[in-house]
Amino acid sequence: MAWRCHGTTNSELISKLHSAGLIKSSRLLEAMKKVDRANYVPPSCSSEAYQDRPQSIGHGATISAPHMHASALENLLPFLNPGARVLDVGSGSGYILACVHHLITDSFDVKAYDSAPQAGFVLGIEHIPELVNESIQNLRRDGLGKMIDEGRIKVIVGDGRNPNNALGGSWDAIHVGAAAPTMPQSLIRQLACPGRMFIPVGVHSQAIFQVDKDENGEITEKELYQVKYVPLTDREAQIAGL
Question: Which residues form a coiled coil (predicted)?
Fold first, then answer.
């Protein structure tokens, strides 16, 4: 199905993902149309920005295929509500950060609250400093510079495999953009009650898992489908693999 979703413009790409049933909700459709994928791929690849396939962004990292972004965001959508706190582990190009920002910000009706509501916040953690800098440039190029300056979107250098309380914890949603060898309990502990994590797990045989934590802190893991992702590893191993 994915091969049918190539486009010549961002709008065409997203519309094809919607027509193919990969984007199901109108909320996600509008959010992804606002994020131009051409701003998140290297300039040398700009002519292929709207192809439905993963692309290298340098430093041993990739930007996932658009259909995978759509699948991840659809899965997390029940937890991507206005005012949510979201963590993106292995944030790479910054594309997911941008989409999430629009989902947790748009339709934020201040009139529905007696007092000023808390703004949504999305944090990207990436262990390649060069990618952190490039992702911030990408986000600014995509018109989100003010959101970075106001602290609504933040990208930091760090090891997402071992987050600590300094990140704040209690994340409504966690997206992991690389495959962990085993299910990381350290990330599950970071989930809010309730909260959801979308994560690829495995070494040779990989699968996407949906990890839910309910209001009482009970954990449910559900395998969704098989995938092939780059590994969630340390900086040295990632660079050595080039």
Answer: none
